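Deviation from plan, reported transparently: nicotinamide-adenine-dinucleotide complex.
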Amino acid sequence: MTQIQNVTVIGAGTMGNGIAHVFAQHGHPTQLVDLNPASLEKAMATIDKNLERLVSKERLTAEQKAAALANLTTSTDLEAAVGGADLVVEAATENEALKLKIFAQMDAAAPAHAILATNTSSISITRIAAATQRPEQVIGMHFMNPVPLMKLVEVIRGYSTSDATCEAVNACSAALGKIPVEANDYPGFVANRVLLPMINEAIIALHEGVAKVDAIDNIMKLGMAHPMGPLQLADFIGLDVCLSILRVLHEGLGKDKYAPCPLLANMVAAGKLGRKSGEGFYVYTKGSKELVVSASF
Ligand code: NAD
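Because the crystal trials were delayed, the predicted structure below was used instead.
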């Protein structure tokens, strides 16, 4: 079984910084790669802030924080950064053509034993693996947001992923304090195949006037013990991301029940993307949220 020591994370956005944080905190020399130097700077500042929060809560000592930061290096040169990796976790933008290109590049530059993992939410692991000469060593390693806090790693086996690759990734995830759970490579895997239809149904209920935004969210929070209502969660994920995952489910599984609600498509077309754009089902100002006061909602 591949022993995973050196890790490279591709993409320093929301997920990449969290993934690099967790590996570095658990003793892995970790290189974080992005095309954009500003993203790398922002990611390092976020990791520093999140580690400091753990120190202030006494879940980490100042020495452990310093050791985690010492494990981290950044780079804009993907090929050089994967040259010594045992495991690469790709967390670049959710775009299939981009991921196929990155996997072909990583395959050419990473050591022969290296496992190539992707954090994709919805793109086929099997198609990504086919861009490499080592499909048995390609796997989905789907971390949840925010990565330092969430326990699950959904481990997705592509058509050709070997048992040895799965075992190595399961062992490595457990050593990070996470709980790996395996799924096979079908559209949306398990997490998004179950979550997104629920979110879509909440938007359909709103669209049909069954209840208002706060009522739908409160019913699911108070009645089902969900920590966040489905509409607030959709804002948190990003309405554009929700729409694109629903389209993957609809196309890949071919059933009308996955068709995205027209209200969701309209909101995305209007630039209302949720928390990141300042408005979705709620409006967001300086870190707080308020209900959108709108006749239609
Ligand atoms: P993001 O937009 O915040 O970050 C993506 C980063 O990738 C950007 O910094 C961008 O500069 C970089 N990038 C683009 N092309 C690159 C290249 N060729 N080489 C190196 N870096 C490159 O995206 P995110 O939300 O962090 O999502 C990343 C991946 O994680 C996606 O596949 C997404 O589906 C998945 N994911 C996201 C979430 C979430 O809640 N955001 C949850 C689970 C999985």
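Residues 37-56 form the longest helix (20 residues). We consider this an acceptable substitute for the interim report.
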